[in-house]
Structure prediction request, 288 residues.
Amino acid sequence: MEVTQQASIKRVYNNNVVLAIEADATEVVLLGKGIGFQRRPGESVDTSMADQRFVADGSYRATQVAGLLSDAPLDQIALAQTITQLGHATLGLEPRQSLMIPVLDHLTFAVRRAQEGTHIDFPLRWEVAQLYPAEAALGRQVVTLVSDTLGVRLQEDEWVAFALHFVNQQWTKGDFSKTVVMTETISRVFLRLAERWGQPIDEDATSAARFVTHLRYVFARAASDEQLHSSHLDVLASVRQVYPEAADAATDIARLIGEAIHRIISTDEISYLALHTGRLYAEMKGPQ
Prediction:
């Protein structure tokens, strides 16, 4: 005999979305065609009837999730789910609610702006294209997908926001503001290196892409208070002997990152940075 899980309806948003409370007092949002039809608060609902179940997550409370889902047409919800699966297939992102909900949130506003003819500026367009090429490519694919699926031509630069959501999912555990700070900081790092080393960094080069990846690792570890510690190798001193300019740059970069996220970057993290500034410097300058 199949066991059903009952929840008490707290609010009916529309025929397809209800907010309910499970036996353990967890607020859940149930999405399913007709799940709210002729329902009333206080009634029981079988949660297995829902196509999807959502809970509070990251920046979104359960009531906010319910409001977003009830405001969005079903075709946009389905498309947000498709985009989430694309992120999994293309970038290896886990197809979680923490990606799907922000993507849907942005999608609904982007479609509305397109329909109203409203344009906005995306100041990080260049930085995102240079620093996150894989995410940028997927963001552009999403803009095309919206046109093909919904018949809505989005503002061309909307890909920037979608790309940042993909970056956000990988490195900053749901806090979109941290993604923006990280992007701006990495851009400043490249400008600082160009000033220190007397020549611009070719950000299309493989060495630059590799360096960005390692910067993102440092940023993510420091922001989540999981910095490297207790290394027995003084990498910074070793790099300083061969490439003193690269060692000094690592210390400078650590200061930039620390100021951006209000952390003191550990000595081991600076050594890790020096290892990669040394490699980048060597590839830029050639054999010494």
